[in-house]
Amino acid sequence: MKKIIAKQEACMGCGLCEVYCTVQHSKSKDIVKAYNSEHPKPISRIRREVNKPVSFAIQCRHCQDAPCVTACLSGAMQKNEKTGEVTHDKDKCMGCWTCVMVCPYGALIMDKEGKVVAKCDLCQGLEEPACVANCPNQALVFKEVKA
Amino acid sequence: MAKYVIVGASAASIGAVEAIRKVDPVGAIMVISEETCAQYSRPMISDLVSGKADIQKMKCRTDEFWKENNAVARLGKKVVSLNLTDKTVSLEDGEKVVYEKLLLATGGKPFVPKMEGQDKDGVFTFTNISDAQHLAAKIDSIHAKSAVVIGAGLIGISVTEALVKRGLKVTVVELQEKILSLLLDGKASDIVEDVIRKAGVNFATGQSVQKILGKPENDGAVGGVILTKGDQVPCDLVIVAIGVIPRTELVAGTAVKINRGIVVDNFMQTNVPDVYASGDVAEAFDFILNQNRLLPLWPLAVLEGRIAGYNMAGTKTSYEGGTNMSSLKYFGIPIVSIGLANPKEDPTLEVLVKQDAEHNVYKKLVLKNNVIVGMTLVNCIERAGVLFYLMKNAINVKKIKQQLLSDDFGLATLPVSLQRKMCVVQ
Protein backbone atom coordinates (compact mmCIF):
# COMPACT_ATOMS: atom_id res chain seq x y z
CA MET A 1 0.00 0.00 0.00
CA LYS A 2 0.98 3.64 -0.33
CA LYS A 3 2.13 5.22 2.89
CA ILE A 4 3.34 8.63 3.99
CA ILE A 5 7.04 8.49 4.78
CA ALA A 6 8.93 11.20 6.65
CA LYS A 7 12.41 12.22 5.61
CA GLN A 8 13.96 13.48 8.77
CA GLU A 9 16.93 15.13 7.09
CA ALA A 10 14.61 17.24 4.91
CA CYS A 11 12.15 18.27 7.64
CA MET A 12 12.53 21.83 8.89
CA GLY A 13 9.90 21.44 11.55
CA CYS A 14 7.86 24.28 10.04
CA GLY A 15 4.53 22.71 10.90
CA LEU A 16 2.80 23.47 7.61
CA CYS A 17 1.78 19.82 7.42
CA GLU A 18 -0.28 20.34 10.56
CA VAL A 19 -1.86 23.46 9.10
CA TYR A 20 -2.84 21.78 5.83
CA CYS A 21 -4.06 18.65 7.60
CA THR A 22 -6.26 20.81 9.80
CA VAL A 23 -7.68 22.67 6.82
CA GLN A 24 -8.24 19.48 4.87
CA HIS A 25 -10.21 18.06 7.78
CA SER A 26 -12.25 21.20 8.33
CA LYS A 27 -15.80 21.70 7.09
CA SER A 28 -15.02 24.83 5.10
CA LYS A 29 -11.61 23.76 3.72
CA ASP A 30 -10.75 27.42 4.17
CA ILE A 31 -7.71 28.21 6.25
CA VAL A 32 -9.09 31.37 7.87
CA LYS A 33 -12.46 29.88 8.71
CA ALA A 34 -10.91 26.59 9.84
CA TYR A 35 -8.71 28.31 12.37
CA ASN A 36 -10.96 31.16 13.45
CA SER A 37 -14.60 30.28 13.32
CA GLU A 38 -15.34 26.59 12.90
CA HIS A 39 -16.95 24.60 15.64
CA PRO A 40 -16.12 21.90 16.44
CA LYS A 41 -12.56 23.02 15.90
CA PRO A 42 -10.93 20.94 13.17
CA ILE A 43 -7.76 19.25 14.32
CA SER A 44 -4.60 18.07 12.65
CA ARG A 45 -4.04 14.34 12.44
CA ILE A 46 -0.35 14.76 11.76
CA ARG A 47 2.05 15.82 14.46
CA ARG A 48 5.38 17.50 14.32
CA GLU A 49 7.93 15.78 16.47
CA VAL A 50 10.76 18.08 17.45
CA ASN A 51 13.87 17.37 19.47
CA LYS A 52 16.25 19.91 18.03
CA PRO A 53 18.01 19.55 15.68
CA VAL A 54 15.84 16.52 14.84
CA SER A 55 12.32 17.00 13.51
CA PHE A 56 9.87 14.97 11.51
CA ALA A 57 6.14 14.61 11.16
CA ILE A 58 4.19 11.53 12.09
CA GLN A 59 0.68 10.26 11.51
CA CYS A 60 -1.06 6.89 11.58
CA ARG A 61 1.25 4.24 10.10
CA HIS A 62 -1.68 2.05 9.02
CA CYS A 63 0.07 -0.88 10.71
CA GLN A 64 -0.28 -4.35 9.29
CA ASP A 65 -1.21 -5.82 12.65
CA ALA A 66 -2.52 -2.64 14.19
CA PRO A 67 -2.62 -2.62 18.01
CA CYS A 68 -5.37 0.03 17.95
CA VAL A 69 -7.68 -2.24 15.96
CA THR A 70 -7.19 -5.15 18.34
CA ALA A 71 -7.61 -2.98 21.41
CA CYS A 72 -10.56 -0.90 20.21
CA LEU A 73 -13.46 -1.45 22.60
CA SER A 74 -16.20 -0.29 20.28
CA GLY A 75 -15.23 -1.63 16.87
CA ALA A 76 -14.67 1.92 15.57
CA MET A 77 -11.13 1.14 14.51
CA GLN A 78 -10.91 -1.32 11.63
CA LYS A 79 -8.28 -2.59 9.25
CA ASN A 80 -9.42 -2.50 5.64
CA GLU A 81 -7.89 -5.71 4.37
CA LYS A 82 -8.26 -4.61 0.74
CA THR A 83 -6.67 -1.16 0.91
CA GLY A 84 -4.51 -1.69 3.98
CA GLU A 85 -5.89 1.47 5.54
CA VAL A 86 -6.70 1.59 9.24
CA THR A 87 -10.07 3.31 9.33
CA HIS A 88 -11.84 5.01 12.19
CA ASP A 89 -15.61 5.38 12.43
CA LYS A 90 -16.22 8.52 14.48
CA ASP A 91 -19.84 7.58 15.08
CA LYS A 92 -18.90 4.27 16.65
CA CYS A 93 -16.04 5.71 18.72
CA MET A 94 -16.79 5.89 22.44
CA GLY A 95 -13.76 8.04 23.23
CA CYS A 96 -12.32 5.51 25.68
CA TRP A 97 -8.74 6.31 24.59
CA THR A 98 -7.71 2.65 24.60
CA CYS A 99 -6.18 3.11 21.14
CA VAL A 100 -4.21 6.09 22.44
CA MET A 101 -2.82 3.82 25.14
CA VAL A 102 -1.52 1.23 22.68
CA CYS A 103 -0.42 3.18 19.58
CA PRO A 104 3.39 3.03 19.52
CA TYR A 105 3.49 6.17 17.41
CA GLY A 106 1.22 8.33 19.50
CA ALA A 107 -0.55 8.88 16.21
CA LEU A 108 -4.10 8.91 17.49
CA ILE A 109 -5.21 12.39 18.33
CA MET A 110 -7.67 13.08 21.12
CA ASP A 111 -10.44 15.31 19.91
CA LYS A 112 -11.31 16.49 23.40
CA GLU A 113 -14.16 18.66 22.21
CA GLY A 114 -15.79 15.87 20.23
CA LYS A 115 -14.72 13.28 22.84
CA VAL A 116 -13.57 10.93 20.07
CA VAL A 117 -10.31 10.02 18.44
CA ALA A 118 -9.11 11.60 15.20
CA LYS A 119 -6.60 9.99 12.89
CA CYS A 120 -5.00 10.14 9.47
CA ASP A 121 -7.32 8.92 6.72
CA LEU A 122 -4.71 9.38 3.99
CA CYS A 123 -6.93 12.17 2.61
CA GLN A 124 -9.23 9.80 0.74
CA GLY A 125 -10.20 11.29 -2.62
CA LEU A 126 -7.11 13.44 -3.00
CA GLU A 127 -4.33 12.39 -5.29
CA GLU A 128 -1.83 13.04 -2.54
CA PRO A 129 -2.50 13.62 1.16
CA ALA A 130 -2.59 17.32 2.03
CA CYS A 131 0.47 17.10 4.28
CA VAL A 132 2.55 15.58 1.48
CA ALA A 133 1.30 17.92 -1.23
CA ASN A 134 2.01 21.02 0.85
CA CYS A 135 5.32 20.16 2.47
CA PRO A 136 7.63 22.94 1.25
CA ASN A 137 10.75 20.81 1.47
CA GLN A 138 9.42 17.46 0.31
CA ALA A 139 10.10 16.00 3.72
CA LEU A 140 6.95 13.93 3.37
CA VAL A 141 6.55 11.52 0.49
CA PHE A 142 3.63 9.32 -0.45
CA LYS A 143 4.90 6.09 -1.87
CA GLU A 144 4.31 2.40 -2.22
CA VAL A 145 5.84 0.41 0.61
CA LYS A 146 5.62 -3.21 1.65
CA ALA A 147 2.45 -3.36 3.79
CA MET B 1 -20.65 -31.41 15.36
CA ALA B 2 -18.20 -28.70 14.55
CA LYS B 3 -14.48 -28.64 14.16
CA TYR B 4 -14.29 -25.63 16.44
CA VAL B 5 -16.72 -25.11 19.28
CA ILE B 6 -16.50 -21.85 21.20
CA VAL B 7 -18.45 -21.32 24.40
CA GLY B 8 -19.07 -17.61 24.79
CA ALA B 9 -19.43 -14.94 22.13
CA SER B 10 -17.79 -11.85 23.51
CA ALA B 11 -14.26 -10.43 23.10
CA ALA B 12 -12.22 -13.66 23.26
CA SER B 13 -14.67 -15.48 21.04
CA ILE B 14 -14.60 -12.71 18.43
CA GLY B 15 -10.80 -12.73 18.47
CA ALA B 16 -10.76 -16.50 18.05
CA VAL B 17 -13.23 -16.57 15.17
CA GLU B 18 -11.27 -13.91 13.29
CA ALA B 19 -8.00 -15.76 13.82
CA ILE B 20 -9.37 -19.17 12.85
CA ARG B 21 -10.73 -17.74 9.62
CA LYS B 22 -7.37 -16.22 8.75
CA VAL B 23 -5.80 -19.67 8.63
CA ASP B 24 -8.73 -22.03 8.11
CA PRO B 25 -11.40 -20.65 5.80
CA VAL B 26 -13.60 -23.73 5.86
CA GLY B 27 -13.47 -25.65 9.16
CA ALA B 28 -16.89 -25.53 10.82
CA ILE B 29 -17.13 -23.06 13.71
CA MET B 30 -19.94 -23.11 16.23
CA VAL B 31 -20.25 -20.31 18.77
CA ILE B 32 -22.61 -20.89 21.66
CA SER B 33 -23.70 -18.10 23.95
CA GLU B 34 -26.39 -17.51 26.51
CA GLU B 35 -26.73 -13.96 25.29
CA THR B 36 -29.05 -13.26 22.41
CA CYS B 37 -27.08 -10.31 21.10
CA ALA B 38 -23.51 -11.21 21.61
CA GLN B 39 -21.13 -9.08 19.63
CA TYR B 40 -21.54 -5.94 21.69
CA SER B 41 -18.91 -4.08 23.60
CA ARG B 42 -19.22 -4.72 27.33
CA PRO B 43 -17.16 -1.68 28.24
CA MET B 44 -19.89 0.39 26.59
CA ILE B 45 -22.72 -0.66 28.85
CA SER B 46 -22.34 2.50 30.93
CA ASP B 47 -22.87 4.51 27.74
CA LEU B 48 -26.15 2.65 27.31
CA VAL B 49 -27.27 3.74 30.78
CA SER B 50 -26.19 7.35 30.26
CA GLY B 51 -27.97 7.42 26.92
CA LYS B 52 -24.80 8.13 24.97
CA ALA B 53 -25.04 4.86 23.04
CA ASP B 54 -27.81 2.60 21.86
CA ILE B 55 -27.53 -1.10 21.15
CA GLN B 56 -26.65 -0.53 17.51
CA LYS B 57 -23.76 1.73 18.46
CA MET B 58 -22.57 -0.78 21.04
CA LYS B 59 -22.11 -3.52 18.49
CA CYS B 60 -18.38 -3.87 18.08
CA ARG B 61 -18.83 -6.07 15.01
CA THR B 62 -21.49 -5.98 12.33
CA ASP B 63 -24.78 -7.86 12.59
CA GLU B 64 -23.45 -10.21 9.93
CA PHE B 65 -20.20 -10.86 11.78
CA TRP B 66 -20.84 -14.54 12.47
CA LYS B 67 -22.26 -15.17 9.04
CA GLU B 68 -19.46 -13.31 7.29
CA ASN B 69 -17.01 -15.52 9.13
CA ASN B 70 -18.99 -18.60 8.26
CA ALA B 71 -19.59 -19.35 11.91
CA VAL B 72 -22.80 -20.83 13.26
CA ALA B 73 -23.87 -18.70 16.20
CA ARG B 74 -26.16 -20.48 18.63
CA LEU B 75 -27.30 -17.50 20.61
CA GLY B 76 -29.56 -17.70 23.62
CA LYS B 77 -28.30 -21.23 24.25
CA LYS B 78 -26.62 -22.33 27.43
CA VAL B 79 -23.91 -24.96 27.65
CA VAL B 80 -24.50 -26.96 30.82
CA SER B 81 -21.77 -29.60 30.78
CA LEU B 82 -18.67 -30.86 29.06
CA ASN B 83 -17.54 -34.37 28.34
CA LEU B 84 -13.83 -34.17 27.70
CA THR B 85 -13.51 -37.87 26.90
CA ASP B 86 -16.22 -37.96 24.24
CA LYS B 87 -15.32 -34.40 23.27
CA THR B 88 -18.86 -33.10 23.52
CA VAL B 89 -20.60 -30.13 25.04
CA SER B 90 -24.20 -30.45 26.21
CA LEU B 91 -26.73 -27.69 25.90
CA GLU B 92 -29.56 -26.99 28.29
CA ASP B 93 -32.10 -28.39 25.85
CA GLY B 94 -30.30 -31.72 25.77
CA GLU B 95 -28.51 -31.24 22.47
CA LYS B 96 -24.95 -32.52 22.32
CA VAL B 97 -22.31 -30.97 20.12
CA VAL B 98 -19.14 -32.83 19.23
CA TYR B 99 -15.98 -30.76 18.95
CA GLU B 100 -12.46 -31.29 17.67
CA LYS B 101 -11.15 -28.14 19.34
CA LEU B 102 -12.94 -26.40 22.17
CA LEU B 103 -12.48 -22.82 23.37
CA LEU B 104 -13.84 -21.83 26.73
CA ALA B 105 -14.53 -18.12 26.57
CA THR B 106 -17.18 -17.98 29.23
CA GLY B 107 -15.95 -14.72 30.71
CA GLY B 108 -16.56 -13.47 34.21
CA LYS B 109 -19.50 -12.94 36.50
CA PRO B 110 -19.95 -10.14 38.98
CA PHE B 111 -18.63 -10.71 42.46
CA VAL B 112 -21.37 -10.00 44.98
CA PRO B 113 -20.52 -10.22 48.68
CA LYS B 114 -23.16 -11.32 51.12
CA MET B 115 -25.13 -8.36 52.38
CA GLU B 116 -28.34 -8.32 54.36
CA GLY B 117 -31.13 -7.12 52.08
CA GLN B 118 -29.33 -7.87 48.84
CA ASP B 119 -32.45 -9.43 47.34
CA LYS B 120 -34.40 -6.19 47.46
CA ASP B 121 -35.78 -4.69 44.29
CA GLY B 122 -33.32 -2.09 43.05
CA VAL B 123 -30.07 -3.98 43.61
CA PHE B 124 -28.13 -4.44 40.40
CA THR B 125 -24.87 -5.88 39.19
CA PHE B 126 -23.21 -4.28 36.19
CA THR B 127 -21.49 -6.66 33.81
CA ASN B 128 -23.55 -7.24 30.70
CA ILE B 129 -26.02 -5.52 28.45
CA SER B 130 -29.00 -6.99 30.22
CA ASP B 131 -27.80 -5.49 33.55
CA ALA B 132 -27.52 -2.12 31.85
CA GLN B 133 -30.96 -2.38 30.24
CA HIS B 134 -32.59 -3.36 33.51
CA LEU B 135 -30.84 -0.57 35.36
CA ALA B 136 -31.80 2.03 32.75
CA ALA B 137 -35.42 0.85 32.79
CA LYS B 138 -35.53 0.95 36.59
CA ILE B 139 -34.19 4.50 36.70
CA ASP B 140 -37.06 5.52 34.46
CA SER B 141 -39.80 3.47 36.10
CA ILE B 142 -39.16 4.58 39.68
CA HIS B 143 -37.81 8.02 38.75
CA ALA B 144 -34.71 7.17 40.72
CA LYS B 145 -33.04 10.14 42.37
CA SER B 146 -30.09 8.55 44.11
CA ALA B 147 -27.86 5.51 44.04
CA VAL B 148 -25.15 3.81 46.02
CA VAL B 149 -22.40 2.25 43.93
CA ILE B 150 -20.36 -0.42 45.71
CA GLY B 151 -16.83 -0.49 44.34
CA ALA B 152 -14.64 2.36 43.10
CA GLY B 153 -12.77 0.45 40.42
CA LEU B 154 -13.12 0.67 36.68
CA ILE B 155 -16.73 -0.60 36.59
CA GLY B 156 -17.82 1.38 39.63
CA ILE B 157 -16.52 4.67 38.28
CA SER B 158 -17.99 4.03 34.84
CA VAL B 159 -21.47 3.33 36.16
CA THR B 160 -21.16 6.28 38.53
CA GLU B 161 -20.54 8.62 35.62
CA ALA B 162 -23.53 7.22 33.76
CA LEU B 163 -25.78 7.69 36.79
CA VAL B 164 -24.55 11.26 37.30
CA LYS B 165 -25.36 11.97 33.66
CA ARG B 166 -28.84 10.67 34.32
CA GLY B 167 -29.16 13.19 37.12
CA LEU B 168 -28.81 10.82 40.08
CA LYS B 169 -27.04 11.68 43.29
CA VAL B 170 -24.40 8.99 43.73
CA THR B 171 -22.48 7.77 46.75
CA VAL B 172 -19.59 5.44 46.00
CA VAL B 173 -18.63 2.98 48.71
CA GLU B 174 -15.16 1.49 48.50
CA LEU B 175 -13.50 -0.97 50.83
CA GLN B 176 -10.01 0.37 50.09
CA GLU B 177 -8.94 3.73 51.47
CA LYS B 178 -8.48 5.12 47.95
CA ILE B 179 -10.52 4.93 44.78
CA LEU B 180 -9.19 3.12 41.67
CA SER B 181 -6.62 1.51 43.94
CA LEU B 182 -5.63 -1.16 41.40
CA LEU B 183 -4.76 1.51 38.85
CA LEU B 184 -3.53 4.54 40.75
CA ASP B 185 -1.24 5.43 43.62
CA GLY B 186 -2.52 7.58 46.46
CA LYS B 187 -1.64 10.92 44.90
CA ALA B 188 -3.19 10.13 41.53
CA SER B 189 -6.23 8.69 43.24
CA ASP B 190 -6.71 11.90 45.24
CA ILE B 191 -6.57 14.02 42.08
CA VAL B 192 -9.20 11.90 40.37
CA GLU B 193 -11.38 11.66 43.46
CA ASP B 194 -11.37 15.42 43.75
CA VAL B 195 -12.51 15.81 40.13
CA ILE B 196 -15.31 13.30 40.63
CA ARG B 197 -16.41 14.93 43.89
CA LYS B 198 -16.71 18.22 42.07
CA ALA B 199 -19.19 16.49 39.75
CA GLY B 200 -21.34 15.97 42.82
CA VAL B 201 -20.38 12.42 43.79
CA ASN B 202 -19.87 11.43 47.43
CA PHE B 203 -17.31 8.85 48.46
CA ALA B 204 -17.31 6.60 51.48
CA THR B 205 -13.93 4.87 51.42
CA GLY B 206 -12.42 2.36 53.79
CA GLN B 207 -15.75 0.68 54.32
CA SER B 208 -18.44 -1.45 52.77
CA VAL B 209 -22.17 -1.91 52.90
CA GLN B 210 -23.34 -4.03 55.80
CA LYS B 211 -27.06 -3.84 55.13
CA ILE B 212 -29.41 -2.77 52.38
CA LEU B 213 -32.55 -1.19 53.75
CA GLY B 214 -36.06 -1.09 52.34
CA LYS B 215 -38.22 1.95 51.79
CA PRO B 216 -40.52 2.89 54.68
CA GLU B 217 -43.57 2.40 52.48
CA ASN B 218 -42.23 -0.71 50.74
CA ASP B 219 -39.66 -2.85 52.46
CA GLY B 220 -39.09 -4.90 49.33
CA ALA B 221 -37.66 -1.92 47.45
CA VAL B 222 -34.25 -0.39 48.07
CA GLY B 223 -34.46 2.64 50.34
CA GLY B 224 -30.93 3.02 51.60
CA VAL B 225 -27.84 1.31 52.95
CA ILE B 226 -26.06 1.12 56.28
CA LEU B 227 -22.29 1.30 55.94
CA THR B 228 -19.88 -0.68 58.08
CA LYS B 229 -18.91 2.44 60.02
CA GLY B 230 -22.56 2.91 60.87
CA ASP B 231 -23.55 5.75 58.53
CA GLN B 232 -26.87 5.46 56.79
CA VAL B 233 -27.17 6.57 53.16
CA PRO B 234 -30.64 6.84 51.64
CA CYS B 235 -30.86 5.72 48.00
CA ASP B 236 -33.25 4.30 45.42
CA LEU B 237 -30.74 1.95 43.80
CA VAL B 238 -27.70 -0.10 44.77
CA ILE B 239 -25.22 -1.10 42.08
CA VAL B 240 -22.70 -3.77 43.01
CA ALA B 241 -19.61 -3.10 40.92
CA ILE B 242 -16.80 -4.72 42.85
CA GLY B 243 -15.35 -6.76 40.04
CA VAL B 244 -15.71 -9.99 38.14
CA ILE B 245 -14.72 -13.54 38.94
CA PRO B 246 -14.11 -16.21 36.30
CA ARG B 247 -17.06 -18.31 35.22
CA THR B 248 -15.40 -21.65 35.71
CA GLU B 249 -18.55 -23.63 36.57
CA LEU B 250 -18.44 -25.62 33.35
CA VAL B 251 -15.03 -27.09 34.06
CA ALA B 252 -15.45 -27.55 37.81
CA GLY B 253 -15.06 -31.24 38.51
CA THR B 254 -13.48 -31.99 35.12
CA ALA B 255 -9.83 -32.66 34.38
CA VAL B 256 -9.31 -29.03 33.31
CA LYS B 257 -7.04 -27.38 35.82
CA ILE B 258 -8.37 -24.32 37.60
CA ASN B 259 -6.50 -21.99 39.88
CA ARG B 260 -8.52 -18.78 40.30
CA GLY B 261 -9.30 -18.96 36.61
CA ILE B 262 -8.64 -21.67 34.05
CA VAL B 263 -4.91 -22.35 33.83
CA VAL B 264 -3.51 -22.03 30.32
CA ASP B 265 -0.09 -22.11 28.70
CA ASN B 266 1.27 -19.52 26.29
CA PHE B 267 -0.72 -21.12 23.49
CA MET B 268 -3.92 -20.59 25.49
CA GLN B 269 -4.26 -24.34 25.83
CA THR B 270 -5.44 -25.90 29.07
CA ASN B 271 -3.89 -29.04 30.54
CA VAL B 272 -6.45 -31.06 28.56
CA PRO B 273 -5.60 -31.63 24.88
CA ASP B 274 -7.74 -29.69 22.39
CA VAL B 275 -9.30 -27.57 25.12
CA TYR B 276 -8.39 -23.90 25.17
CA ALA B 277 -9.45 -20.96 27.32
CA SER B 278 -9.21 -17.20 26.82
CA GLY B 279 -10.51 -13.97 28.22
CA ASP B 280 -11.81 -13.23 31.69
CA VAL B 281 -12.17 -16.92 32.52
CA ALA B 282 -8.49 -17.71 31.92
CA GLU B 283 -5.26 -16.92 33.74
CA ALA B 284 -3.05 -15.61 30.98
CA PHE B 285 0.52 -14.35 31.00
CA ASP B 286 1.42 -10.98 32.52
CA PHE B 287 4.71 -9.84 30.98
CA ILE B 288 5.43 -7.41 33.79
CA LEU B 289 4.82 -9.76 36.69
CA ASN B 290 6.22 -12.63 34.63
CA GLN B 291 3.45 -14.95 35.73
CA ASN B 292 -0.02 -15.99 34.72
CA ARG B 293 -2.91 -14.24 36.41
CA LEU B 294 -6.46 -13.04 35.96
CA LEU B 295 -6.60 -9.89 33.86
CA PRO B 296 -10.24 -9.33 32.96
CA LEU B 297 -9.72 -6.66 30.30
CA TRP B 298 -11.40 -6.41 26.91
CA PRO B 299 -8.35 -5.81 24.66
CA LEU B 300 -6.46 -8.66 26.31
CA ALA B 301 -9.42 -10.98 25.88
CA VAL B 302 -9.46 -10.24 22.14
CA LEU B 303 -5.73 -10.93 21.92
CA GLU B 304 -5.92 -14.12 23.96
CA GLY B 305 -8.83 -15.32 21.88
CA ARG B 306 -6.85 -14.65 18.75
CA ILE B 307 -3.91 -16.70 20.04
CA ALA B 308 -6.28 -19.54 20.93
CA GLY B 309 -7.84 -19.33 17.48
CA TYR B 310 -4.54 -19.57 15.66
CA ASN B 311 -3.43 -22.53 17.74
CA MET B 312 -6.76 -24.32 17.45
CA ALA B 313 -6.48 -23.98 13.68
CA GLY B 314 -3.00 -25.43 13.75
CA THR B 315 -0.88 -22.30 13.39
CA LYS B 316 1.36 -22.41 16.42
CA THR B 317 1.39 -18.92 17.93
CA SER B 318 2.65 -17.88 21.32
CA TYR B 319 1.05 -15.16 23.44
CA GLU B 320 3.33 -12.24 24.17
CA GLY B 321 1.38 -11.50 27.28
CA GLY B 322 -0.54 -8.56 28.59
CA THR B 323 -0.52 -6.72 31.85
CA ASN B 324 -2.87 -4.68 33.97
CA MET B 325 -3.63 -1.90 31.51
CA SER B 326 -6.55 0.46 31.40
CA SER B 327 -7.50 3.71 29.88
CA LEU B 328 -10.32 5.69 31.47
CA LYS B 329 -12.35 8.51 30.03
CA TYR B 330 -14.71 9.24 32.87
CA PHE B 331 -15.57 12.65 34.31
CA GLY B 332 -13.49 14.38 31.67
CA ILE B 333 -10.17 13.35 33.19
CA PRO B 334 -8.38 10.85 30.94
CA ILE B 335 -6.23 8.28 32.70
CA VAL B 336 -3.87 5.57 31.50
CA SER B 337 -2.43 3.07 33.92
CA ILE B 338 -0.22 0.17 32.85
CA GLY B 339 1.77 -2.40 34.77
CA LEU B 340 3.07 -1.56 38.23
CA ALA B 341 1.11 1.55 39.04
CA ASN B 342 1.55 1.55 42.76
CA PRO B 343 4.34 -0.83 43.77
CA LYS B 344 5.41 -1.37 47.36
CA GLU B 345 8.72 0.11 48.49
CA ASP B 346 11.41 -1.75 46.60
CA PRO B 347 15.05 -0.65 46.29
CA THR B 348 15.31 -2.20 42.84
CA LEU B 349 12.61 0.10 41.49
CA GLU B 350 13.12 3.68 40.44
CA VAL B 351 10.12 6.00 40.43
CA LEU B 352 9.88 9.14 38.31
CA VAL B 353 7.03 11.54 39.04
CA LYS B 354 5.90 14.83 37.60
CA GLN B 355 2.89 16.70 38.84
CA ASP B 356 1.10 19.83 37.75
CA ALA B 357 -1.52 20.28 40.43
CA GLU B 358 -3.13 23.28 38.79
CA HIS B 359 -4.07 21.24 35.72
CA ASN B 360 -4.74 17.96 37.51
CA VAL B 361 -1.81 16.45 35.64
CA TYR B 362 0.13 13.61 37.21
CA LYS B 363 2.68 11.43 35.45
CA LYS B 364 4.56 8.59 37.01
CA LEU B 365 6.89 5.96 35.66
CA VAL B 366 8.24 2.97 37.50
CA LEU B 367 11.56 1.65 36.19
CA LYS B 368 13.47 -1.51 36.92
CA ASN B 369 16.99 -1.83 35.55
CA ASN B 370 16.23 1.15 33.30
CA VAL B 371 13.21 -0.54 31.77
CA ILE B 372 9.71 0.88 32.27
CA VAL B 373 7.61 -1.55 34.28
CA GLY B 374 4.80 0.75 35.32
CA MET B 375 3.20 3.96 34.20
CA THR B 376 0.38 6.19 35.36
CA LEU B 377 -0.72 9.19 33.36
CA VAL B 378 -3.51 11.43 34.58
CA ASN B 379 -4.94 14.16 32.36
CA CYS B 380 -1.99 13.95 29.98
CA ILE B 381 -2.14 10.68 28.08
CA GLU B 382 -1.25 11.65 24.51
CA ARG B 383 2.15 9.92 24.58
CA ALA B 384 0.99 6.89 26.52
CA GLY B 385 1.38 4.59 23.53
CA VAL B 386 5.00 5.55 22.92
CA LEU B 387 5.84 4.86 26.55
CA PHE B 388 3.93 1.60 26.37
CA TYR B 389 5.97 0.59 23.35
CA LEU B 390 9.17 1.13 25.38
CA MET B 391 7.67 -0.89 28.19
CA LYS B 392 6.34 -3.74 26.07
CA ASN B 393 9.64 -4.14 24.25
CA ALA B 394 11.71 -3.78 27.44
CA ILE B 395 13.78 -1.01 25.88
CA ASN B 396 16.56 0.44 28.01
CA VAL B 397 15.66 4.08 28.63
CA LYS B 398 18.73 5.11 30.61
CA LYS B 399 19.82 7.72 28.07
CA ILE B 400 16.41 9.37 27.73
CA LYS B 401 15.25 9.01 31.31
CA GLN B 402 15.18 12.74 31.96
CA GLN B 403 12.94 13.38 28.96
CA LEU B 404 10.38 10.63 29.48
CA LEU B 405 8.04 12.78 31.54
CA SER B 406 8.74 16.09 29.86
CA ASP B 407 5.90 17.77 28.00
CA ASP B 408 7.64 17.44 24.65
CA PHE B 409 8.50 13.77 24.98
CA GLY B 410 7.70 11.90 21.80
CA LEU B 411 9.12 9.83 19.00
CA ALA B 412 11.78 12.45 18.32
CA THR B 413 13.15 11.78 21.81
CA LEU B 414 13.87 8.15 20.98
CA PRO B 415 17.31 7.02 19.75
CA VAL B 416 17.64 7.21 15.97
CA SER B 417 18.21 3.46 15.78
CA LEU B 418 14.81 2.89 17.38
CA GLN B 419 13.14 5.48 15.14
CA ARG B 420 14.44 3.58 12.15
CA LYS B 421 13.36 0.25 13.57
CA MET B 422 9.87 1.64 14.07
CA CYS B 423 10.02 3.01 10.50
CA VAL B 424 8.96 6.49 11.56
CA VAL B 425 11.77 8.01 9.53
CA GLN B 426 13.87 6.89 6.63
Task: Describe this structure as you would to a colleague.
The complex is a heterodimer of chains A (147) and B (426). Chain A has 147 residues and is an alpha+beta fold. Chain A folds into 2 domains: 1-59 and 130-142, no CATH class; 63-119, Alpha-Beta Plaits (2-Layer Sandwich), CATH 3.30.70.20. Chain A is 20% helix and 22% strand. Chain A contains 5 helices and 8 strands; from the N terminus they run E-H-H-E-E-H-E-E-H-E-E-H-E. In chain A, strands 1-8 form a two-stranded antiparallel sheet. In chain A, strands 2-3 form a two-stranded antiparallel ribbon. The radius of gyration of chain A is 15 Å and the shape is globular. In chain A, 44% of the residues are buried. With 426 residues, chain B is of the alpha/beta class. Chain B has 3 domains: 2-42 and 58-108 and 246-312, FAD/NAD(P)-binding domain (3-Layer(bba) Sandwich); 112-242, 3-Layer(bba) Sandwich (FAD/NAD(P)-binding domain); 333-421, Enolase-like, domain 1 (2-Layer Sandwich), CATH 3.30.390. Helix content of chain B is 22%, strand content 30%. Chain B has 10 helices and 25 strands. In chain B, helix 1 (11-23) links the parallel strand 1 (2-7) and strand 2 (29-33). In chain B, helix 1 (11-23) runs parallel beside helix 8 (298-312). Chain B starts with a strand and ends in a 5-residue tail after the last helix. The interface between A and B is large, with 39 and 46 residues.
What key attributes describe this structure?
heterodimer; A: alpha+beta; Alpha-Beta Plaits; 2 domains; two-stranded antiparallel sheet; 5 helices; B: alpha/beta; FAD/NAD(P)-binding domain; Enolase-like, domain 1; 7-stranded mixed β-sheet; 5-stranded parallel β-sheet; 25 strands; globular
Task: Summarize the entry for a quick read.
Chain A is of the alpha+beta class and about 150 residues long. Chain A has helices at about 15-25, 30-35, 65-70, 100, 130-135, and strands at about 1-5, 45-50, 55-60, 75-80, 85-90, 110, 115-120, 140-145. The radius of gyration of chain A is 15 Å and the shape is globular.
